[in-house]
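Record type: monomer structure entry
Structure origin: computed from sequence
Chain ID: A
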Amino acid sequence: MFGKLQYVDTSNCFHILNSSKSTPSIGISIPTTKKYKEQNQLHDSNGRIEKSKNLGVKFRPGVGYDSDEKEKLDYQIAKNSRTHVWKNGVLKTQNGFLRKPVDKTESEEKIGGQVQTERSTKCGNDVKRGQDSPTHVVKGSVLKTQNDFLRKPVESSENKKKIGGQLSSGNVVEKVQTKCSTKWARYGGCIPVMLEALETVSDLDEALKPWEKSLTKKERTIILKEQVEWQRAMDIFEWFKRRGCHELNVIHYNIMLRILGKARRWGEIESLWDEMRVKRVEPINSTYGTLIDVYSKGGRREQAMKWLKLMNERGMVPDEVTMGIVVQMYKMAGEFKMAEEFLKKWSLCKCLVEERVNGATRSGIRVNGSSGTSVCLSSHTYNNLIDTYGKAGQVKEAYDTFHEMLREGILPTTVTFNTMIHMCGNNGRMEEVASLMRKMEELQCRPDTRTYNILISLHAKHDNIGMAATYFKLMKEASLEPDAVTYRTLLYAFSIRNMVIEAEKLILEMDKKDLEIDEFTQSALTRMYLEAGMVEKSWSWFQRFHLAGKMASECYSANIDAFGERGHILEAERVFNCCKEGKRLTVLEFNVMIKAYGISKKYDEACYLFDSMEKHGLSPDRCSFSSLIQMLAAADLPLRAASYVRKMQEAGLVDDCIPYCAVISSFAKVGQLEMAVRLFDEMIAFDVKPDVVVYGVLINAFADIGSVKEATKYLIEMRKSGLEINVVIYTSLIKLYTKVGYLREAEETYKMLQSFEAGADVYSSNCMIDLYSERSMVGQAEEIFENLKRKGNANEFSYAMMLCMYKRTGMFKEAIQIARKMRELGLLTDLLSCNNVLGLYATDGRFREALATYNDMLSSSIQPDDSTFKSLGIVLLKCGVPKEAVGKLECMRKKDPQSGMQKWSSTLSSVIGVLDTDSPDREDA
């Protein structure tokens, strides 16, 4: 039922083929709207409205679309063919579509729902009544069996007879079963026997000899559609062409295009397209849909778009199925805006054409909230659009489409709700998930296994593991069988939360159902047992899969990593050896084992393992080198790390300066600046471009030793290379200028730091306070300090430097305030800060506060040093203790630190205690 191409003069719009309109889905229950009353409804034996056929967007074999499209076409064709009127030699269907009369000798039924030939109809009906009967009736020149299989008369010389379910003809054995194979029983009639013959007899002349001159279009269509291998299908197709009596139409070409597309035979597709043009076989809507679909799924999106463009140039609007394919193609490419725009344009053009054909408009989907009229779409298309908006993160548009669907009387399907629930959950709108579940129940739309899988996954993702487990229970109560996805989702959720009991219960269920645990979940469970401290259990869990012999290289690697990350190096080595014994070692296992050795600080073993890779026929990759180099550099072994950097360079695996940077930084850290510079020069010689990090490492290293010349040299080189100076480098420069006392340069650098969005950090500010303090520039230091306090960034060193500055300038009142504030804020955690405060109290005669600070140091486990006891000695001397006695205390502390410190404490307490009794108001005065 395909009409002729008609061109419609619609500017900036698709053109349309005058074909049958899409029929809206009939939901579970039908609203009492005028639209639905006018539709032809299907009822079951109880008078209830049946759920409509699937109006999906997939192509089915046979007419260019996937098999799940068959029911849609069946329903549409059956509906449109109920009333036929012949007028002036033209067949007019009930909905006004025009068709040319079909020649009676070639009339046939399309797959599943078109007009049947008399022969095939008879054959199909009678086979149910007596397909096992051996009776044959000869009528005219045709052999007619009791089940009405029509066969050419067989010459008596052939002496053909049944032999064990086969037909023997001379030396040729036709492997044709007398009883239709259940594999193809759905077709009825003679078709199962033909397909059986084609499957069992390789020679086409022999296989199809009984039907050589009587094959109908329907039979040719099904024969091609049922072929699994493209080469066999092509052979049959060519056989049909060689037999001139077998006409091939566009449907047959559609089938071949799909078969060749699935096999990625692009050259053959092009040849077939050229053949269609030569033989003037006009492509139809589904032809282009098939081509767009197979090229898109075959990873040739640009070519798929060319077919869409050609379709438009030929004056066709994509039907709803093809539209769905194009939208899906855009979605797979992540181009959600393009999908939306395509659907909007398609909807508008479809509406304009329907106005011309039917003389009326009907309201329908309003894409992205736009107003106006459009076409009424099937539930599948609404689902596709909702999914498109969902993946694009346009939740509002998806909801608008969902509500438009309800207003149009198109009842949501389970797929609709699944899409909406998944979208809302992924966007954190769990309250709306619950609302959708209530709506689903209200519309009597039963959740399926996927619904529950989505709910379990979403609640686990949002850390509501209790609700996830509840939905698992509800799923069983709804008589739905959890599948492998259900178990894996919940099992993984249990494993990452170390829910051992719950996980093991699920494992038992999976074992009873013979469901496999995937390798990703297997390694997650290994980690679960390790986190729970069940090392032996984790090992036996690994062995279960290892001994089964089904573990891939990636799974061995994941288990090595699980043991290695948690310091179980022996178990990691055992897994590695198991992989080696099974001869499944890849570079990946070596890499994770090297990483495991690094975590356990077994650097010699890591290097030995790396060096042994070539013995196993493997070459280290970039990850192998990087892992080992980073590990050795971090372990302050830059010389060993440098040797592997050079090997990496020789292997041609260095494509950036990161490996060099790690080793240069390690050399700088251990004070070997000469080696750091040598490696930097070596890197430049290999034309490896340094980045800002490498320059930052060198500038900071020379800043630490106060080398202005070298630091400035690399600063200039960096600017010449076009790299921008970052906050880290400016901070290093301030450190350098503070160290050497370059006030002007430090101030300029500090201003540059303040120009950044984050502003100057506390370290740079402290450096400036220190620099101003050394020069007794109290006002400037106070300004920076107050700014730090306003931002809440002032730390212990900020306060300590201000205290030292006030003490140095004789501002004891301000210094005492800073000291008390430090104690109040708990900022006396560093020995240097405590010594500064003690020195201040000793100098200012605040003996009780000095003793309290000393006791705080001991209680905080801050070990006093010589500077501490020097300040305490001043306190004792000022309290009248003889110098000789203080000297004895100091000698005792050095001989026996523990008892000496106790003696200091008791002496200080007794002396200051007596002093307090004699002069209680002395310190306040």
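Annotation 1: Confidence is low (pLDDT under 50) at residues 1-180, 360-374, 920-925.
Annotation 2: The longest strand covers residues 84-87.
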